[in-house]
Amino acid sequence: MVAASAVLVAGTVSADGMAVAGAASRAPAAVAWGPCPQTSGKQAPAELECATVRVPLDYREPRGHQIKVAINRLKAKTSRDADHLGTLLVNPGGPGASGRNLTAYVARNLPGDLRDRYDIVGFDPRGVGASEPAMRCVDPAAYYKAPRPDAVPRGRAEERVLLSRAAAYANACGNRWAWLLPHLTTENSARDMDSIRAALGEQKISYLGYSYGTYLGAVYATLFPQRVKRLVLDSVVDPTTVWYESNLRQNAAFERRHRLFLGWAAEHNSVYRLGDTTKETSFAYYAMRDRLRERPAGGIVGPSELDDTFTITGYSDKVWPAFAAAWSAYVRKGEVQGLVDLYNKHGKVDAADENSYAVYLGVQCRDARWPRDWDKWRADMTRSHRSAPFLTWPNAWYNAPCAFWPVRGGEPVEVRGSAKLPPILILQSRDDAATPYRGALTVHRLFPRSRLVVEQGGNHGVSLGGNQCVDGHLSAYLSDGSLPARDAGCRALPEPSASARMAAESRERHDLLGSLGLLGLLGGR
């Protein structure tokens, strides 16, 4: 594709083999930047600009129905001369997370003088946030009213209750959004990215994607390799296992991370008094979960709310002290407020979270085929639960609407490298639970001109989170395309201290989790 003022040329092919964007279709109009509106009663920073880009609902009919993708920008401080590095497009993952929420975080934490040299552009993918339409399927206050049914069913009767909830959610989305659901795919979001590039008047763009954003970036690089200047994939989705198989793999990875958390609590038994072995802390954790089933904390936090909340411990060990403290206060003193506060902060669902969840399902259920036979789900989850009880059933019910989704899944884009694509940078933590290490190895193989930098440890989202080694590689690459001579490793950040002071020390990590869309609802894949 060519710049914003020109005519698009035919020849782009979609994953299903159909031609996209006929010769007579025109590129999006140039972006008209303006002030950003207030959100949640807060005025946006004056230097933050906002706009929308009109894109085709269906790229096979480029002159047909149009929808709007919301974008924002923090403009480079350098003029468009040799020091200006162009546009850095950012995405936090999900699918369903708002990229506009990531812009300021990236700008604030980019190392060196990169902030001054890039236009940093965030976007809300189709269906998300300020994009139009924004997809919402149910009233979150009613659908997610706590406490919800236990996600780990005890018998077929409880399973049927959970199944009916999943089917009801899928039907509600179908009733409201039948016209949108067929077009809510990663491939179309990647094409939207290129529409944004064209509207910005850029011949090429750079991209930083986290989590699911790595899959979106890999699909973009596959479809538009000639439009990529720099490509950074941080915490990598395996593009060969989307999406049912990847969720099964997540169960095992989260189980490993959960046991590391339990082991850490045991190591600090003098502080938390939850047991001095992993076996004892595991008993304490599941005893708490069983008790919450009978008597939810504060009448709110039952076992499912506990699952959603403590899933955050799999994303970052920096939050472990706060979670262990609330857990200990409940077990040792019968205090429930700590669990309630954690739920309100990390697990409670509002309208924005429900929008993210609706789009998450819309994309994943449509991207690829899912089993429609619930007997297969039951057999797979029963097997997975034996070795990975922490997340298996919560993860299953999170995705279960895909078994009933009104639009069947298609064929994912076959992600692959290209001679037209520049060398790319892959960042990954060794023990990442949400996007297991194996995915980074797969993408490294699919893009032979890539370099892989591995952080020891298990944090999800390794760049711009305080690791100077990782950020050094990021800075060198974004500055001039420099990559390490060979794959590299970085030490993990220091293990968290079992101290009340950690609340302040981990604030930066909390900001990153929020920017990645992980502080509302189980997800943030």
Automatic annotation (TrEMBL):
Highest taxon of the lineage: Bacteria
Keywords, alphabetical: Hydrolase, Signal
Regions annotated as coiled coil: none
Entry GO MF terms: hydrolase activity
AB hydrolase-1 domain segment(s): 87-462
UniProt similarity note: Belongs to the peptidase S33 family.
PANTHER family, alphabetized: 2-SUCCINYL-6-HYDROXY-2,4-CYCLOHEXADIENE-1-CARBOXYLATE SYNTHASE (PTHR43248), TRIPEPTIDYL AMINOPEPTIDASE (PTHR43248:SF29)
The name this protein goes by in its record: Alpha/beta hydrolase
